[in-house]
Structures are given as structure tokens and as C-alpha cells.
Write a structure and sequence with these properties.
The complex is a heterodimer of chains A (288) and B (404). Chain A is α+β, with helices and mostly antiparallel strands. Chain A contains 10 helices and 5 strands. Chain A has helices spanning 49-55, 88-91, 102-109, 126-133, 142-149, 151-185, 187-195, 200-241, 252-278, 282-285, and strands at 2-6, 44-48, 62-65, 74-82, 97-101. In chain A, helix 6 (151-185) runs parallel beside helix 9 (252-278) and helix 8 (200-241) packs antiparallel against helix 9. Chain B has 404 residues and is α+β, with helices and mostly antiparallel strands. Chain B has helices at 2-12, 14-52, 75-83, 140-146, 195-199, 204-207, 233-243, 252-262, 264-295, 297-305, 310-347, 364-381, 383-390, 394-403; strands at 56-60, 88-101, 107-114, 122-127, 135-138, 153-157, 159-161, 166-168, 171-181, 190-194, 222-227, 247-251. Chain B has a 6-stranded mixed beta barrel. In chain B, a hairpin with a 4-residue loop joins strand 7 and strand 8 (166-168). In chain B, helix 1 packs across helix 11, helix 9 (264-295) runs antiparallel to helix 11 (310-347) and helix 10 (297-305) crosses helix 14. Chain B is elongated, with a radius of gyration of 32 Å. Classes of the chains: A alpha+beta (288), B alpha+beta (404).
Chain lengths: 288, 404
């Protein structure tokens, strides 16, 4: 069992300080293979990849860990470098993570036989039973903990939705404007068609069909563009925050919503524009 | 005359012009919001940092103030050494930690141990300031949680053992004032007490079996430093870090840089959306003016034929773009302020943010600059159709228009 600790536990090498005196501290920057850490004599730790990168540490390096900066501590070997999980609560935190064996951390911190938390595989129904019988403990479902720790992301999500609403309003106006202009530009053609005996209904349907096609092609191109932008955003922010968390998701539901919305807006704009056009007399439309 | 012609041209198709103005207004609102978002967080944070009035913050090496539970030992000697430094005018040592206000049930609160004479962590709202070792100031959230009032005496403990349900290191403290803690969220329960009082409290989770020894004794979380006038802050920062390798010294500029790094996402989003808004505004005006010119191609050819100069035609078409974007930007200013309030309300729910923190900060100069950019885009949008109108082959256009 391991316990996470924050880097406040002063992994001195990570803070840019000399790693304690003595020959053990003089490790080369290139890490020897993991097998070189003799676990029978030396306690081992795991560090996260961001710490390894920023402090120039690798598997097999020896460092000193202590609970208080500037005080003597334990020399330990780095046995593993861990990758961060997709945990939203980690994103905005700047701290490094070091994992020690539980008994080692208890000994270092003087915590005796104390633990911060247990992870228990149990049915949901066990939660109230645990809370009722375990004096001094509070059991939380993993889902509840996830909700609690992702408050930041829920706020960001609400913000994105609000930005989405503004974007939809702007797009609707843009689409309506463009459709009106496009239809208006062809008023002479429509006038000629009407003079040839083409019914108002046919003219309206042809305009609506054209607007729908434009909306459909536009939304397909938009979906492609969105997919590409999403891949770029994920690539950039996953690198920036050193996390496998996916920042944007293009799901079939989202694409469906975008296509349907574009079609509705396109058809609506086409209908309005066509109705405005067919209300005028054919002669007026051709400029007579 | 030129303006009248431009206005007449725009009012000829009212619904089309109204839609374009609405589109530009939404784009302007979005642009304004994103400019406010881009600078708001930084300036808001700068306000908090500068409100404290200190130039440097000393923290345990590699940590940010109160970002972790790290502390540095030998606090008294360190503070004495800093106070003796000729370049330093004022030193405010601070220790942070969790305490439990234990009446009637233990309520956890963030506690700040400080020297009341030089503190900058809270603003007193009611009552009086701390004057003795057994006094404290609490914020409204804590007072509400424990049902206490100014003048009450409460039991405050350094630790709480949930298994044994007992508090440790408890002291009776008089509640003498209510304060607003400038760097904490309004709903975060907080108390401030003299530094020595907090240092003397036992924290059993850390101390383990040896509960008789306060683990916070002589320890500090952060030391705020005000330099004397004329001192080079960066040089002082470097020197302090060199003199004590246990410490990191953080200047206001570095704190702002750190803030920029943490909230970089919002700045990048603001930049992207602001660019998209400008592009949308540009495209809308270009489209409308181009179509408008296409419709009046015969009219323009006649004007050219009767001797109207190319420059006047160009100016008239560009005036249309200017009018559209100027009206849209003006409407967008009001719309942008409204949507900024709405969006700020959403982001205000961020956990742990100080109550007065604004994501969207209205700065008249930035607003004018951004909207001027949009208007400039509108004017630029008219260049292509204006050039096209001015360079029409007059005879051919007139013939084609007559045939049509």
C-alpha cells in the first residue's frame, strides 16, 4: 500500500538543493537501471514524471526525503516514475507527488500507526453501514469524491456552455444575414422564374432546399474543423499540464446537435428569406 | 453628401442592415468580454497582492504562499535577522494551519498566526483588533458556523482526533473582532490570532505520540517583506534566496507570472475567442458591403460617368463599413458589459477564490482599444468592395445594366 504525499515533504533534490552530503549524493544525471537500487538495504520511492523532468531525476538516483526542509532525512532510491492519472483536481495544482511505502511515511512523519484514508472495494449499500459502525471514520463513495474534486471543472463546463450560447446566437444571426443576402442577390432570377409560371411554393422550397444544403455542407465542414481543433486542444493542454485528461470531447451526440442546429437555423433563415422574396411581385423582382 | 449617400444605401435594406449590426454587436460584445477576461484575472490578482503592500514573500523553498503545508523553522531568529537588514523596512511573519473551534462541536477553520501590528491578511469589519495573546479575529463564515459573536470566548484547538473525539492543544480565546480575509474565499472559515498563540498549539496528527511538543513551535509559513524606498527588489530577492537556501523569495511580478501560468487557459481562450470575434465582425461587414456594392453597380457606374471621382466612391463605400461597425460596436459595448456580468457570476463559483476576485474587469482604455480594433476591421472590410466599385469599367457596366 502506498500513500501520496505532497512535495512539501521536501524532496530536497527537487527543490534545487544539493541532495545531502556523502558519496551517495554524487549520482550521475543519467539514471542507472532500476535493478541497481538494492531494495534490501535501501527504501525506495516513486516520483511523478513532472518532478523527474524538472529535477532531472531518473530511476536509480538517490535522494534524501525529510518532513522538514533543512533537517536530516532518509536517503532513498527512486524505484519508479509515475504518470499522473486523469484526475481533474490535479490540473491546477502545481505540487509534485512522491509515493512512499506506508510504514516509511508513518515513520518519517511520526504519524505512528495512523493513515489518512483507506480505499475499500464495496457495494454502495456498505457506505451507511461503515459510517454507522466505524467510530471516527467517514466513508465516501468514489463517485461523490469525484464530484467534490471536480468542482473546478464543473464551473469551467458551465462557462463553456455560456460561451456556447453566445456563439450560437452569433452564428444564427450570421447565418440568417448571409441567407438573406444570398437570396436577395438572386431576386431577378426568382422574378424570372415567377414570370415563367413557377409557383411561389416551388420557389420557397427551392430556396429552403438550397439553404439546407449549405447548412449541411457547412456543418459537415464545421464538424471536421471542430474535430481537428479538439485534437489540437487535447494535444496542447495534455502536454502543458502533464496529464492524460481529455480536455475536449467530440462525441456523436455533439456532432448530431451541431448538424441539427445548423439545419434548423439554415431552414429557418431560408424560409424567412424566401417568404420575403415571394411576397413581392415578379415584375418588381426583375426591376420593372 | 458622401455620408448621406452611405446612410441612404444602408437604410435602403433595413432588415439586412439591422441583422448585420446585430451580428457586429454580438461579435463586439464577445470581443469586449474576452479582452476583459484576458486582463481581468491578472489585474484582480495584482489588486489583492498590492493591497497587502509588501514587496516580497519568503516561503519554504519551492513552494508558493499557503499552497502547501510546508513551514520553515527557526522563525524568530530568521525574523530578527531580516529586521536587522538595512534594506528591509518591515517584516510580517505568518504561520498558517488548521485549528478546530470546539464549541459546541469541533468546527475546522483555517488559522493565520500573525503579528497584529504588521499584518496584511485581513481587514477588520467589526469589533477591534487583536491586542493580547488570548484574542482572535474571525470571519463571518466561522462566526455563523459556530454561532459565536464578538465578545464571546471560544475554545480553539490545534488538533482533533476523530477516533477519540477529543481536541488537543486547546486554548480559550476571546473573539474581539470580525474580519474579511483578503486572500480567502468568503465561505472559507478563518481565524487570525497572534503568531505565538498558534505556534504553541499542538497538532497531534503530526506529533504522533509526542503530543507534549508543539510541532509548530517557532515555525513560519510565509514572511512578508516591505523593502525600503529605492531598494532594487530583484537584487534583494536574489540576495535573500542566496543567504538562506531553505527559502524561496517571491516578488509581486513573480506572483503575477505564477498566476498567469495557472490561469493561462483562460487567457488563451480569451485570445482565441477575441480573434474569432474580430474575424466574424470583419466577414459580416465585408459580405454586406460587397453585396450592397454589387446591387448598386449600375448606380456607381452612373456616378462615375457624370464625373464623381474614384476617391469619393471609395470613401462612400468605406463609410458604409465604418457606420455598420461603429453602430455595432456601440451596441456591443452595452451587450458586452451585461454578458460579462453573467459570465463573471458563473466563474465566481470557482472553489477557493476570494470573494472580490473578478474574472472580467472593465478598463475603459482596453474597452476603447478593442472596440476601435473592431471598427478598424469594419473600415478595412470595405476596402475590397470599395476598390472594386471605384475601378468598374464604366461603359461596359452601364451597357450590361441597361440590358439587364
Amino acid at each position: 500500500m502506498t500513500v501520496n504525499i505532497a512535495c512539501v515533504l521536501s524532496l530536497l533534490a527537487a527543490q534545487g538543493l544539493p541532495v545531502s552530503s556523502g558519496p551517495q549524493a554524487q549520482q550521475p544525471a543519467q539514471a542507472p537501471p532500476a535493478a541497481s537500487v538494492d531494495s534490501t538495504r535501501l527504501r525506495t520511492i516513486a516520483i511523478d514524471e513532472r518532478l523527474a523532468e524538472e529535477a532531472g531525476l531518473g530511476i536509480g538516483d538517490l535522494v534524501t526525503v525529510t518532513t522538514v526542509a533543512g533537517t536530516p532525512g532518509d536517503t532513498v532510491g527512486i524505484a519508479a516514475i509515475t504518470r499522473r492519472g486523469a484526475d481533474p483536481s490535479d490540473i491546477s495544482r502545481g505540487e509534485f507527488k512522491v509515493r512512499l511505502h506506508l510504514d516509511h511515511l508513518q515513520q518519517l512523519t511520526g504519524a505512528g500507526d495512523r493513515v489518512g484514508r483507506f480505499a475499500v472495494l464495496a457495494e454502495d449499500a456498505a457506505v451507511p453501514r461503515i459510517n454507522a459502525m466505524a467510530f471516527g471514520f467517514q466513508a465516501h463513495r468514489a463517485a461523490d469524491v469525484a464530484v467534490e474534486t471536480s468542482t473546478t471543472f464543473r464551473v469551467v463546463n458551465r462557462f463553456h456552455r455560456a460561451i456556447g450560447v453566445i456563439t450560437i446566437v452569433a452564428s444564427a444571426i450570421f447565418l440568417l444575414c448571409i441567407t438573406l443576402l444570398k437570396v436577395d442577390e438572386r431576386r431577378r432570377d426568382v422574378g424570372a422564374l415567377r414570370l415563367l409560371g413557377i409557383s411561389r411554393r416551388t420557389v420557397v422550397w427551392s430556396v429552403v432546399l438550397e439553404a439546407s444544403l449549405v447548412a449541411l455542407v457547412g456543418s459537415a465542414m464545421g464538424a471536421l474543423l471542430g474535430w481537428g481543433a479538439s485534437a489540437l486542444v487535447n494535444h496542447y493542454y495534455q502536454g502543458l499540464y502533464s496529464t492524460p485528461l481529455r480536455f475536449t470531447l467530440v462525441t456523436p451526440g455533439i456532432i448530431g446537435f451541431a448538424v441539427v442546429l445548423s439545419l434548423v437555423l439554415g431552414i429557418g433563415a431560408g424560409l424567412i428569406a424566401a417568404q420575403r422574396l415571394v411576397r413581392r411581385s415578379p415584375l418588381e423582382l426583375v426591376g420593372r | 453628401m458622401m455620408l448621406r449617400l452611405a446612410l441612404h444605401s444602408l437604410t435602403r435594406r433595413r432588415s439586412r442592415t439591422a441583422l448585420t449590426v446585430a451580428g457586429v454587436a454580438v461579435a463586439a460584445a464577445m470581443l469586449l468580454d474576452m479582452v476583459m477576461l484576458g486582463s481581468g484575472m491578472r489585474e484582480s490578482f495584482r489588486g489583492f497582492v498590492e493591497q497587502q503592500g509588501f514587496d516580497l514573500r519568503l516561503t519554504p523553498r519551492g513552494t508558493m504562499p499557503f499552497d502547501t503545508e510546508a513551514t520553515v523553522g527557526g522563525g524568530a531568529a530568521l525574523v530578527a535577522r531580516l529586521r536587522a537588514d538595512p534594506q528591509i523596512a518591515e517584516v510580517a511573519p505568518v504561520l498558517g494551519g488548521r485549528v478546530f473551534v470546539s464549541e459546541p462541536d469541533p468546527v475546522a477553520a483555517f488559522s493565520i498566526g500573525l503579528e497584529p501590528a504588521v499584518q496584511a491578511d485581513y481587514v477588520l469589519e467589526d469589533g477591534r483588533d487583536i491586542a493580547a495573546g488570548d484574542e482572535m479575529v474571525a470571519n463571518a463564515a466561522l462566526l455563523a458556523a459556530v454561532g459565536a459573536e464578538i465578545g464571546d470566548t471560544v475554545r480553539v484547538a490545534g488538533g482533533y482526533d476523530p477516533q477519540m473525539r477529543r481536541v488537543t492543544g486547546a486554548r480559550q480565546l476571546a473573539l474581539v473582532g470580525r474580519g474579511r480575509f483578503v486572500m480567502l474565499a468568503a465561505d472559507e472559515r478563518a481565524v487570525a490570532m497572534p503568531l505565538a498563540t498558534l505556534q504553541s498549539m499542538v497538532e497531534p496528527a503530526r506529533a504522533g505520540a509526542a503530543t507534549s511538543e508543539p510541532v509548530r513551535a517557532d515555525r513560519l509559513s510565509v514572511i512578508l517583506i516591505r523593502a525600503r524606498d529605492g531598494v532594487d527588489i530583484e537584487a534583494l530577492r536574489t540576495r535573500l534566496e542566496r543567504e538562506d537556501p531553505r527559502l524561496s523569495a517571491l516578488s509581486t511580478a513573480a506572483a503575477l507570472e505564477f498566476m498567469d501560468e495557472r490561469l493561462g487557459y483562460f487567457r488563451q481562450l480569451a485570445f482565441i475567442l477575441a480573434s474569432v470575434s474580430l474575424l466574424v465582425g470583419f466577414l459580416l461587414v465585408t459580405t454586406l458591403v460587397t453585396v450592397s456594392v454589387n446591387e448598386r453597380i449600375g448606380e456607381i457606374a452612373v456616378m462615375r460617368a457624370i464625373g464623381v471621382a474614384r476617391g469619393r466612391i471609395v470613401a462612400q463605400v468605406m463609410a458604409e463599413g465604418l457606420a455598420l461597425s461603429a453602430v455595432g460596436a456601440t451596441l456591443g459595448l452595452g451587450l458586452g458589459l451585461l454578458t460579462a456580468r453573467w459570465l463573471n457570476g458563473i466563474l465566481a463559483a470557482f472553489p477557493g477564490l476570494p470573494d472580490a476576485f473578478d474574472f472580467f474587469l472593465f478598463e475603459p482604455s482596453s474597452a476603447v482599444r478593442s472596440l476601435a480594433m473592431l471598427v478598424a476591421c469594419g473600415v478595412l472590410a470595405g476596402i475590397w468592395p470599395a476598390w472594386r466599385a471605384a475601378t468598374l469599367p464604366i461603359a461596359r457596366t452601364l451597357r450590361e445594366e441597361a440590358v439587364a
